[in-house]
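Notes from hallway chat w/ T.B., transcribed later so I don't forget. T.B. wanted the structure written out for a chain they're using in a teaching module, and asked if we could keep both sequence and structure tokens in one place. Agreed to drop them here.
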Amino acid sequence: MQHNPGFLKLVDDVKRQIKECTVADVQARMTRGEQFYFIDVREDHEYQVDHAIGARHLGKGIIERDIETVIPDKHAPIVLYCGGGFRSALAADALQQMGYTDVLSMDGGIGAWREAGYPIESDKSG
């Protein structure tokens, strides 16, 4: 997908304010049995097609509204991902502004996750 210049500038600016991790970092955390919230911020239809195993869905359009209900602990570790790492970066920035202190955006998103051959599942109910 070709992104517009204004969007790319916004994401580049935000990426200076947030922390990112790789798909390998996330997989290693899972392998070690670390406890963290793994949140897919893509649109509903994208999540239903496929998502990383163990990921919970909170779309970018509603994450700010619902995050405090889903994750009331503002110090809980959270890893966000989207399709390629752009929307999750924006969501990470928003959560940090809301007081969340341990938020990471997974660089490369589900695309990098699939490319690495990490486990995915689909939600055929929707």
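Follow-up for T.B.: Residues 5-117 form a domain with the Oxidized Rhodanese; domain 1 fold (CATH 3.40.250.10). Might be a good example for the class.
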